[in-house]
Amino acid sequence: MKINLKQELTKQWFKNLQDIICKNIEEIENNKILFKSKRWVKNSNKDEGGGESKILENGKVFDKVGVNFSEVYGKFPNEMKGKIPGTKKNSNFWASGISIVMHMKNPYVPAMHFNTRYINTAHGWFGGGMDVTPCFKDEKQKKWLQMRLKTMCNRHNKKYYKIYSNWCDKYFYLPHRKELRGIGGIFFDYKKNNWEKDFHFVKDVGLEFIKIFNEIISRKNKIKWTKKDKEIQYIKRGRYVEFNLLYDRGTKFGLQTGGNIDAILMSLPPTAKWK
After folding, report:
1. Which of 32, 114, 135, 202 has its CA 20 to 30 A from that of 194?
2. CATH classification (class only), 5-267
3. Catalytically annotated residues
Protein backbone atom coordinates (compact mmCIF):
# COMPACT_ATOMS: atom_id res chain seq x y z
CA MET A 1 0.00 0.00 0.00
CA LYS A 2 1.34 3.43 -0.94
CA ILE A 3 1.80 5.61 2.14
CA ASN A 4 1.61 9.37 1.78
CA LEU A 5 3.66 11.82 3.84
CA LYS A 6 0.84 12.85 6.19
CA GLN A 7 0.07 9.24 7.02
CA GLU A 8 3.72 8.42 7.62
CA LEU A 9 4.27 11.41 9.92
CA THR A 10 1.17 10.75 12.02
CA LYS A 11 1.88 7.03 12.26
CA GLN A 12 5.44 7.64 13.45
CA TRP A 13 4.26 10.19 16.05
CA PHE A 14 1.67 7.81 17.50
CA LYS A 15 4.19 4.93 17.68
CA ASN A 16 6.89 7.11 19.27
CA LEU A 17 4.36 8.42 21.79
CA GLN A 18 3.43 4.85 22.72
CA ASP A 19 7.09 4.04 23.42
CA ILE A 20 7.66 7.23 25.45
CA ILE A 21 4.56 6.76 27.62
CA CYS A 22 5.26 3.07 28.27
CA LYS A 23 8.80 3.89 29.41
CA ASN A 24 7.40 6.63 31.67
CA ILE A 25 4.89 4.24 33.25
CA GLU A 26 7.54 1.58 33.84
CA GLU A 27 9.66 4.21 35.59
CA ILE A 28 6.69 5.08 37.84
CA GLU A 29 6.66 1.37 38.77
CA ASN A 30 10.44 1.59 39.40
CA ASN A 31 10.95 -0.75 36.43
CA LYS A 32 9.95 -3.72 38.62
CA ILE A 33 6.95 -4.52 36.42
CA LEU A 34 7.22 -4.16 32.65
CA PHE A 35 4.74 -4.03 29.81
CA LYS A 36 3.85 -7.21 27.95
CA SER A 37 3.72 -6.49 24.24
CA LYS A 38 1.61 -8.24 21.63
CA ARG A 39 1.82 -7.45 17.93
CA TRP A 40 -1.21 -8.23 15.79
CA VAL A 41 -2.32 -8.11 12.16
CA LYS A 42 -5.77 -7.12 10.98
CA ASN A 43 -6.00 -9.82 8.34
CA SER A 44 -3.73 -12.87 8.18
CA ASN A 45 -4.62 -13.50 4.52
CA LYS A 46 -3.73 -10.08 3.11
CA ASP A 47 -1.94 -6.89 4.11
CA GLU A 48 -4.39 -4.65 5.96
CA GLY A 49 -2.05 -3.38 8.64
CA GLY A 50 -2.10 -4.13 12.34
CA GLY A 51 -0.69 -2.78 15.56
CA GLU A 52 0.90 -3.37 18.92
CA SER A 53 -0.93 -3.73 22.21
CA LYS A 54 1.05 -3.16 25.42
CA ILE A 55 -0.42 -4.03 28.82
CA LEU A 56 1.03 -3.68 32.33
CA GLU A 57 -0.85 -5.29 35.22
CA ASN A 58 -0.65 -5.75 38.99
CA GLY A 59 1.74 -2.93 39.70
CA LYS A 60 2.09 -0.95 42.91
CA VAL A 61 0.58 2.12 41.19
CA PHE A 62 -1.35 0.65 38.26
CA ASP A 63 -3.87 -2.19 38.52
CA LYS A 64 -3.91 -2.25 34.73
CA VAL A 65 -2.80 0.10 32.00
CA GLY A 66 -3.10 -0.53 28.27
CA VAL A 67 -1.27 1.48 25.60
CA ASN A 68 -2.31 0.59 22.06
CA PHE A 69 -0.92 1.64 18.70
CA SER A 70 -2.51 0.73 15.39
CA GLU A 71 -2.21 1.36 11.68
CA VAL A 72 -4.96 -0.31 9.66
CA TYR A 73 -6.34 0.06 6.15
CA GLY A 74 -8.66 -1.56 3.66
CA LYS A 75 -12.34 -1.14 2.88
CA PHE A 76 -15.19 -0.36 5.25
CA PRO A 77 -17.96 -2.99 5.35
CA ASN A 78 -20.97 -2.14 3.18
CA GLU A 79 -23.10 -1.32 6.23
CA MET A 80 -20.63 1.45 7.18
CA LYS A 81 -20.30 2.92 3.68
CA GLY A 82 -21.62 6.48 3.63
CA LYS A 83 -21.81 6.70 7.43
CA ILE A 84 -18.15 7.67 7.74
CA PRO A 85 -17.15 11.00 6.15
CA GLY A 86 -15.64 10.52 2.71
CA THR A 87 -16.98 6.99 2.12
CA LYS A 88 -20.09 7.71 0.09
CA LYS A 89 -18.43 6.88 -3.25
CA ASN A 90 -15.39 4.94 -2.09
CA SER A 91 -15.15 2.76 1.03
CA ASN A 92 -11.33 2.71 1.17
CA PHE A 93 -9.79 3.92 4.43
CA TRP A 94 -6.52 4.26 6.33
CA ALA A 95 -6.36 4.91 10.07
CA SER A 96 -3.68 5.17 12.71
CA GLY A 97 -3.77 6.13 16.35
CA ILE A 98 -2.84 5.60 19.96
CA SER A 99 -5.22 4.75 22.80
CA ILE A 100 -4.46 4.62 26.53
CA VAL A 101 -6.54 3.61 29.54
CA MET A 102 -5.19 3.62 33.11
CA HIS A 103 -6.91 1.79 35.97
CA MET A 104 -5.17 2.62 39.22
CA LYS A 105 -4.41 0.60 42.35
CA ASN A 106 -5.22 3.48 44.70
CA PRO A 107 -8.95 4.39 44.50
CA TYR A 108 -8.04 8.04 45.10
CA VAL A 109 -6.07 8.15 41.86
CA PRO A 110 -8.61 8.55 39.04
CA ALA A 111 -8.85 6.36 35.98
CA MET A 112 -7.45 8.23 32.99
CA HIS A 113 -8.05 7.87 29.27
CA PHE A 114 -6.37 9.37 26.22
CA ASN A 115 -6.47 8.78 22.51
CA THR A 116 -5.58 10.54 19.28
CA ARG A 117 -6.02 9.30 15.73
CA TYR A 118 -5.78 10.26 12.08
CA ILE A 119 -8.20 8.79 9.55
CA ASN A 120 -8.03 9.00 5.76
CA THR A 121 -10.93 8.32 3.41
CA ALA A 122 -11.74 10.75 0.61
CA HIS A 123 -11.05 13.21 3.43
CA GLY A 124 -8.43 13.22 6.18
CA TRP A 125 -9.10 14.24 9.76
CA PHE A 126 -7.87 14.06 13.34
CA GLY A 127 -9.81 13.07 16.42
CA GLY A 128 -9.19 12.25 20.05
CA GLY A 129 -9.05 13.72 23.52
CA MET A 130 -8.56 12.82 27.16
CA ASP A 131 -10.74 12.52 30.23
CA VAL A 132 -10.40 11.79 33.94
CA THR A 133 -12.73 9.56 35.99
CA PRO A 134 -12.30 9.81 39.78
CA CYS A 135 -14.15 7.69 42.31
CA PHE A 136 -14.47 10.54 44.81
CA LYS A 137 -15.45 14.17 44.30
CA ASP A 138 -12.59 16.64 44.28
CA GLU A 139 -13.50 20.11 43.05
CA LYS A 140 -9.93 21.31 43.40
CA GLN A 141 -8.70 18.58 41.05
CA LYS A 142 -11.51 19.32 38.60
CA LYS A 143 -10.68 23.04 38.44
CA TRP A 144 -6.97 22.23 38.08
CA LEU A 145 -7.66 19.88 35.17
CA GLN A 146 -9.86 22.46 33.47
CA MET A 147 -7.17 25.10 33.87
CA ARG A 148 -4.46 22.85 32.43
CA LEU A 149 -6.51 21.88 29.41
CA LYS A 150 -7.73 25.42 28.78
CA THR A 151 -4.16 26.73 28.88
CA MET A 152 -3.07 24.04 26.42
CA CYS A 153 -6.00 24.70 24.07
CA ASN A 154 -5.45 28.47 24.21
CA ARG A 155 -1.97 28.02 22.76
CA HIS A 156 -3.71 27.00 19.53
CA ASN A 157 -7.11 28.69 19.50
CA LYS A 158 -8.98 30.38 22.35
CA LYS A 159 -12.26 28.90 21.10
CA TYR A 160 -11.05 25.30 21.36
CA TYR A 161 -11.45 24.67 25.08
CA LYS A 162 -15.10 25.65 25.37
CA ILE A 163 -16.02 23.63 22.29
CA TYR A 164 -13.97 20.53 23.13
CA SER A 165 -14.77 20.45 26.86
CA ASN A 166 -18.50 20.69 26.11
CA TRP A 167 -18.12 17.97 23.49
CA CYS A 168 -16.36 15.80 26.09
CA ASP A 169 -19.22 16.19 28.58
CA LYS A 170 -21.76 15.28 25.90
CA TYR A 171 -19.72 12.34 24.62
CA PHE A 172 -18.76 10.73 27.95
CA TYR A 173 -22.34 10.59 29.19
CA LEU A 174 -24.29 7.47 30.16
CA PRO A 175 -27.88 8.19 29.14
CA HIS A 176 -29.27 5.06 30.82
CA ARG A 177 -27.68 6.23 34.09
CA LYS A 178 -28.26 9.93 33.43
CA GLU A 179 -24.75 10.72 34.62
CA LEU A 180 -21.36 11.80 33.32
CA ARG A 181 -18.62 9.17 33.26
CA GLY A 182 -16.10 11.42 34.96
CA ILE A 183 -15.17 15.06 35.59
CA GLY A 184 -14.58 15.90 31.96
CA GLY A 185 -11.63 16.71 29.77
CA ILE A 186 -11.60 17.44 26.04
CA PHE A 187 -12.94 15.57 23.03
CA PHE A 188 -12.68 16.45 19.35
CA ASP A 189 -13.37 14.75 16.02
CA TYR A 190 -13.46 15.43 12.26
CA LYS A 191 -10.70 18.01 12.74
CA LYS A 192 -9.58 18.92 9.22
CA ASN A 193 -9.18 22.70 8.93
CA ASN A 194 -5.41 22.94 8.47
CA TRP A 195 -3.35 19.73 8.55
CA GLU A 196 -0.13 21.26 9.91
CA LYS A 197 -1.90 23.21 12.66
CA ASP A 198 -4.18 20.30 13.51
CA PHE A 199 -1.24 17.90 13.76
CA HIS A 200 0.59 20.36 16.00
CA PHE A 201 -2.46 20.50 18.27
CA VAL A 202 -2.74 16.69 18.37
CA LYS A 203 0.92 16.38 19.37
CA ASP A 204 0.41 18.99 22.10
CA VAL A 205 -2.56 17.03 23.47
CA GLY A 206 -0.34 13.96 23.78
CA LEU A 207 2.46 15.81 25.56
CA GLU A 208 -0.01 17.52 27.92
CA PHE A 209 -1.52 14.15 28.83
CA ILE A 210 1.92 12.94 29.95
CA LYS A 211 2.30 15.95 32.25
CA ILE A 212 -1.23 15.60 33.61
CA PHE A 213 -1.14 11.91 34.50
CA ASN A 214 2.27 12.24 36.12
CA GLU A 215 1.13 15.14 38.27
CA ILE A 216 -2.14 13.47 39.29
CA ILE A 217 -0.33 10.28 40.31
CA SER A 218 2.28 12.24 42.24
CA ARG A 219 -0.44 14.08 44.18
CA LYS A 220 -3.01 11.35 44.77
CA ASN A 221 -1.05 8.14 45.15
CA LYS A 222 0.14 9.22 48.62
CA ILE A 223 -3.41 9.04 50.01
CA LYS A 224 -4.10 5.99 52.20
CA TRP A 225 -7.12 3.92 51.19
CA THR A 226 -9.33 1.20 52.68
CA LYS A 227 -11.17 -1.90 51.44
CA LYS A 228 -14.36 0.16 51.45
CA ASP A 229 -12.69 2.69 49.14
CA LYS A 230 -11.70 -0.17 46.82
CA GLU A 231 -15.30 -1.42 46.68
CA ILE A 232 -16.43 2.08 45.65
CA GLN A 233 -13.77 1.99 42.92
CA TYR A 234 -15.07 -1.37 41.64
CA ILE A 235 -18.61 0.07 41.31
CA LYS A 236 -17.27 3.13 39.47
CA ARG A 237 -15.39 0.83 37.13
CA GLY A 238 -18.68 -0.86 36.31
CA ARG A 239 -19.90 2.44 34.89
CA TYR A 240 -16.68 2.65 32.87
CA VAL A 241 -17.38 -0.78 31.39
CA GLU A 242 -20.95 0.18 30.52
CA PHE A 243 -19.86 3.25 28.58
CA ASN A 244 -17.08 1.52 26.67
CA LEU A 245 -19.22 -1.42 25.57
CA LEU A 246 -22.41 0.51 24.83
CA TYR A 247 -21.37 3.92 23.50
CA ASP A 248 -17.65 4.28 22.80
CA ARG A 249 -16.89 5.15 19.16
CA GLY A 250 -13.45 3.58 19.24
CA THR A 251 -14.85 0.24 20.43
CA LYS A 252 -17.51 0.27 17.73
CA PHE A 253 -15.04 1.36 15.02
CA GLY A 254 -12.61 -1.40 15.96
CA LEU A 255 -15.26 -4.11 16.00
CA GLN A 256 -16.84 -2.95 12.73
CA THR A 257 -13.50 -2.81 10.89
CA GLY A 258 -12.22 -6.20 12.01
CA GLY A 259 -9.75 -4.91 14.59
CA ASN A 260 -7.93 -6.99 17.17
CA ILE A 261 -10.36 -7.99 19.95
CA ASP A 262 -7.76 -7.96 22.73
CA ALA A 263 -6.61 -4.47 21.74
CA ILE A 264 -10.18 -3.17 21.44
CA LEU A 265 -11.18 -4.46 24.87
CA MET A 266 -7.95 -3.51 26.67
CA SER A 267 -9.83 -0.52 28.14
CA LEU A 268 -11.80 -2.81 30.45
CA PRO A 269 -10.63 -2.88 34.09
CA PRO A 270 -9.27 -6.09 35.67
CA THR A 271 -12.10 -6.09 38.24
CA ALA A 272 -15.46 -4.32 38.24
CA LYS A 273 -18.68 -4.73 40.20
CA TRP A 274 -22.35 -3.80 39.94
CA LYS A 275 -25.07 -3.31 42.49
Report:
1. 114
2. alpha beta
3. 113
